[in-house]
Amino acid sequence: MTRIFQNLARRWSELSLALQFVVAGGFGLLVVMVIVGTWVTTQIRDGVTRNSAATTALYVDSVIAPLLPDLRKSEELSASVKQALDETLGQGALGKRLASFRLWRRDGTILYAKDSALTGRRFGLNDNLRSAFQGSVVAQFDTFDENEDKERAAGVPLLEIYNPVREPWSGEVVAVTEFYEVASDFKATLASALLSSWLVVAGTTLTAFLLLSGIVLRGSRIIDDQRGALRRQVSELQGLVTQNSALRHRVQRASRRATALNERYLRRIGADLHDGPAQLVALAALRMDSPVFTGDGHGSEGRSTEIAMIRKTLEDAMREIRGICTGLVLPQIETAAAADVLRLAVEEHERRTGTSVTLTMPRHLPEPGASEKISIYRFVQEGLNNAYRHGRGKDQAVRAGMKNGRLFVEVSDGGPGFDPARAEGLGLAGLRERVESIGGQFETLTGPKGTKLVIRLSVEEQA
Question: How far, CA to CA in Å, does 429 sit from each of 168, 311, 354, 442?
Fold first, then answer.
C-alpha cells in the first residue's frame, strides 16, 4: 500500500502545475459547487414553499374563518357548520385547489375533515401540528406522514400547509387547519427556480475555474520556460566548470613542465657557455701566460703572432656569445602587428641561414595580445630552426590565417620527418607548454614527405 501511494505521489509530482490545478482545482471547485448549489437550492425551496404557503393560508383563512364558531367553547362543530364547510370546500375555486382539509383541536382531535371518516377521531400531534399550535405556518411539499396514505395516493404534487386559527379578539391559537393544495404550477415554478439557481451556480463556478485555469496555465508556462532556461544555464555552467577544471589542470601541468623545462634550458645555456665561449676565453687566458709576454727573449714577431691568435680566440668567443644571445633576446614585437611579427621571424631566419622561406597569410590578421605575439614569434623561430637543421631547409614555408574563429600558424618543410614521441626536443616541448599555458593548441604532423607544426590561438577577429 505504501508503495502504491509513493508511486501515485511520484506520478503526481511529474505532472505540470497546470494539469495538477485542473485535477485538484476542478475537483475542489466541483465539491464547492455542489455544496453551494445544494445550500442555495434548499434556501430557494424553503423560501418559495414558505411564501406560497403563507399566501394560500391567508386565502383559506379568509374563506374558512367566518364559518367557524368559537372553538374555545365548542368541543365539536354543529351540523350547519359542517354543511357550510362541505359546500365551501366541495365546489368553486377553493374546492378545486384543496385535495384534502382537516381542522384540528389542540388535543389532537379532528373536528372536521373533507374525508368524513376522519371526523371525530383523535391522533397524536406531530411536529408540524405542534409548530402550528405555537403560531407558525408550516408547509411541506410532497412530504407525507404515515397517516396520509390517501394524499400520497392522489398522484399529483401536493403542498401540505398547517395554518393556525386564531381567536379574533385575543389572537390566541385555538385550532389548526391542515390542508393539501394541488401544486402542479408550484412544482413547475419551483423546478424552474431550482434549475436556474443550479445553472447560475454552475456557470459561476465554471467561469471562475476557467479564469483560474488561464492564470495558472500562463504561470505554469512561464515556470516551465524559466525551468528549461535554468536547466540550460546549469548545463552550460556545468560544462564551463568542467572546461575550467580541465584548463586549470592543463595549466598546472604546463606550469610544472615549464618549470622543469626552464631548468633544462638554463642548464643547456650554461653548457653552451661552458663548452663554447668559456673554453675560448680560457684558451686566451692561457696564451696570456706565454713566454712572449713574460720577456724571456722572444722577438716582437712572435709576440705579434701570439697577440693575433689571442684576438682571434676572443673574437670567436664573442661571436658565440652573440649567437647565443640572438636566440634568447626578442626583438620589439609587443607593439608590432601580427603580420609584422611573422615577417620579422621569417626574415631573421633567412638572414641567419641564407635559405628562403615561403610566407603565406591573408591581408588582414587579428591583433592578439603580447603573450600570443611572443608565442607566435618563438614558434616560427623554433619551427624554422628545426626545418633548417633536420629538414635540410627544404621547402620551408610559413602559413597563417583564421579558421573557425581561431588564429592558426603553421610551419612546414619537405624533410624526411621524425618520430614526435622520441624526437620532440627541448625547443618544441617548451613551445607546447607556452602555447597551452595561454589556452592554445599545439599539433605536430610529420611523415616521410615532411613535417608540419601547427598552433591555434583563441583571438577575436576585428573588422
Answer: 127, 39, 26, 10
**Average pLDDT, integer, range 176-185:** 78
3-state secondary structure 419-448: CHHHHCCHHHHHHHHHHHHCCCEEEEEEEC
- Is the full-model pTM beyond 0.70? no
Q: Which residues of 422-460 are buried (b: 16+ CB within 10 A; e: fewer)?
A: eebeebbbbbbbbbbbbebebebebeeebbbbbbbbebe
Q: d(Cα 80, Cα 156) in Å, to the nearest integer? A: 31
| Strand locations in 282-366 (E) | 358-360
> CA 302 to CA 292: how far, in whole Å?
7
Which three cell numbers mark 251?
595549466
CB atoms < 10 A from the CB of 196, how many? Answer: 12
- Contact, 139 vs 161, CB < 8 A? yes
C-alpha triplet 22, 27, 30: angle, nearest 5°: 115
- Which residues, 6+ apart, have CB-to-CB distance to 343 below 8 Å? 359
The rounded distance, in Å, linking the Cα atoms of 143 and 51 is: 17
- Count other C-beta atoms under 10 Å from residue 92's C-beta: 11
**Alpha-carbon gap, residue 46 to 308, rounded angstroms:** 139
Nearest alpha-carbon partner for 190 in 146, 139, 152: 139
Average confidence score pLDDT of the chain: 78
Contact indicator for 294, 303 with CB cutoff of 8 Å: no
| Angle, helix 184-275 to helix 300-328, in steps of 10 degrees | 180
In this structure, how many other beta carbons lie within 10 angstroms of the beta carbon of residue 250?
14
* Cβ atoms of residues 387 and 397 within 8 Å: no
Place of cell 608590432: 336
Separation between Cα atoms, residue 453 and residue 443, nearest integer Å: 6
Q: Which three-class secondary structure state does DSSP give residue 176?
A: strand
- Check pLDDT > 70 for residue 271: no
Rounded Cα–Cα distance for residues 407 and 417 (Å): 25
Q: What percent of the chain has pLDDT over 90?
A: 7
| Beta strand extents in 105-211 (DSSP E only) | 110-113, 138-141, 158-166, 173-182
